[in-house]
Amino acid sequence: MKQANGTFDFTAQDSLGVPAELVSIEADLRCFVRDAVDGLSLGVVAALDDRLRRTLDAWISGLEPDTSSGPTSYARVHAAFDALLAAYRCVTPASTAVDVARARTAADLVFWACAAQHSVVDGVWSELIEGFETAASGMVRVSGDLPGIGRQYLRALAFEVAAVDQLQGAALVAAAHLVDLAVPFLSLARMQSSDAVYSVDAGRAGRPLRFVAHPAPSAWFFLSGDAVVFLTGLLARMQNGMVPPSLRNAGLTAGAAQTAARHLIVRWSSSPPLRRFRRHFVSGVLSVIRGLGEIRHALGGTASAVPVEWAISDLSRGGVGAKVAPDSVSIPIRGELLSFRPQDGASWHLGVVRRVRYLNGEVAIGIETLSPRPTLVRVDDGRAPHEVFFCDPVQKGEAVRVAAPVNTLRAGVPLFISADNRLQKLKPLEACEVDAGFELRVYQVL
What we know:
alpha+beta, Thrombin, subunit H, six-stranded antiparallel barrel, elongated
């Protein structure tokens, strides 16, 4: 809202914590598009574009460094950019400035779709690559160091390839800033090179595809090697306290920026993360128990809540894929600990949600199996006893992964358990992963 002194007050928020001003801008854009019988002027849409971005920047900069607003809030931002893109499609007369503004908005739409864990619709990718190929007609390589549609298409590809939905909170915002810093070092080329992992093709809607065996002659190859070199050097400087001004001015911490940089380096490398095990597409019913307390009851053999049922989409040695209707159940968050088993299974597995993606009217959930035979174990750290989940068998000299609620176990403090009628000591190792409400620590059995 505009105050008397001409400044904007972004404190008013809806129930999801999204600024009311942003919701108001989306509504204005929808109204303009609905009534745009004779088209819209670039000036009107550009003014709303500027308001939207200033509102968004103010909201993000006001969040606490460790705040994770969550996919639901990000979905509201995604909806606002969707309305903005629709408005730019109505602008007349057509011009290069309009085309670039549309491409920029489409690239931002890709980012917020990923942040909201939504799949980017094919129409957006088709619009991006059609505009790109028109602008790049007759060229064999397009780099992101020059302004224009090519740079915006590269931004969109960079967001999608980087799987920014795997980041949250400040690290997610930092990734957006780092992509803009690195985009001049990204390029698309007609000729395939040894480090080209992704390709795009108008015949496949312009969406980035990984490891295409026989790309079409019209394909372009996404080259990110130079950007990886740039980010590697930038990461080294940030580790020495030199945070880029754009990140520092956005209120982002060095820790969030470094997390985002490491993530982008891994995802843009010539050897990005791959599935360790082959997926088998099957159908069936997955019984799922949520909540650490209920999981404790299930693994302890005591009464528990009635499991929810999800549809199995695929299985592998490393986990299971499931699908649910968006309105049928409370959707889990990435990093949530679950206990699950096929409907006809005898024992409960322990797993963690690694991916949530809204697509085609369903929610796809990827679960990594932490242990097919977890056990509920009572441990003592010398201060108090705790019930925790062991993901591995207790064998002398071997490592055992231990899952427990956050702040239950103390870093660097050994655990003691009673096994085989004797007291056994577990030496803490440095490995530790903190997720949504639980942490996974590693110990060596002495």
